[in-house]
């Protein structure tokens, strides 16, 4: 079981968050075997969970949630239906928490979360996929034109500072677990991985002076417009990771490869909601935002994420 603690202030007005509920006490109905795990979540988010209370009355004034409802006793199932019948607020615990905290709690993930949801429209709605691809192409072409002067200056500075190519190509895993070569401005020295693949970190000694600046402003990501035009990536989505790291991460993080159900993005909800980091805990938190993004995707949400990304690039704001 993963028990991660977010050491920065979480964005309570999350980009994708819908209706807000402020009730602190939540009546949770779940199998007894799930209680210990749910208490971890209760403590982490400072909620008050009341478990499997058969004496509950006055349903309208309470928030009632269920988890793994298919495994509940018939009495509890009957109570949940009765609560709905009498005007109570009844929802699955994962859906309710997503609306409260703005990300998906990965400890709650199981096959039912994915198979019994009416969400994940981005995976099945052809119109949504067409619109997203159209937005990708338009955005990539605009970025290519608008940032061409910046790209030329950066390319010159990279050549002046150190030997080696201007661009850096690295194999990443994308849609449906297929690999592709991601293109970035080179921000490290040419011997950065002479001893093998390594996680990048905030104060990485392998990063050049120019590289430090273009990483902080996300300018190193600009050449990925080529990946977007090719169809390898989207403008917004989970960041593409290297297979060597994915194999380790999926052993620790539930359903980690589900992020490959959509195209990876140049930017994404995780990038604008969580600060830079390269630890297992950081990967867990980014996964929470990635799953939330995939489930709640909309074109308007993509536009908001792009706007926040532009603030980072142009104004040096954000994470």
3D structure, described in words:
This protein is an alpha/beta fold and 319 residues long. It folds into 2 domains: 25-101; 122-315, no CATH class. 43% of the residues lie in helices and 12% in strands. The strands form 3 sheets. Strands 2-1-3-4 form a 4-stranded parallel beta sheet, with helices on both faces. A two-stranded antiparallel sheet has the order 5-6. Strands 7-8 form a two-stranded parallel ribbon. The two termini are 28 Å apart.
Question: Any chance you could write out the topology, listing elements then pairs?
Answer:
Layout: E1 25-29, H1 35-45, E2 48-51, E3 63-66, H2 74-85, E4 89-92, H3 93-101, H4 111-115, H5 121-124, H6 126-146, H7 148-161, E5 167-173, E6 179-185, H8 209-216, H9 225-230, E7 234-236, H10 243-252, E8 265-267, H11 269-273, H12 280-295, H13 299-315
Parallel strand pairs: 1-2, 1-3, 3-4, 7-8
Antiparallel strand pairs: 5-6
Helix pairs in contact: 7-8
What features would you highlight for this structure?
319 residues, two-stranded antiparallel sheet, 2 domains, four-stranded parallel beta sheet, single chain
Helix fraction?
A: 40-55%
> Nearest-angstrom radius of gyration?
22 Å
Low-confidence stretches: 1-20
Biggest sheet descriptor: 4 strands, parallel
Shape, per Cα inertia axes:
elongated
Distance between the termini: 28 Å
Tally the helices: what do you get? Answer: 13
Number of domains: 2
Question: Taking strands numbered 1, 2, ... along the chain, how are they ordered across the largest sheet?
Answer: 2-1-3-4
Q: Could you say which structural class the secondary elements and strand pairing correspond to?
A: alpha/beta
Helix and strand run: EHEEHEHHHHHEEHHEHEHHH
Mean pLDDT: 85
Strand content is 5-15%
Overall number of strands: 8
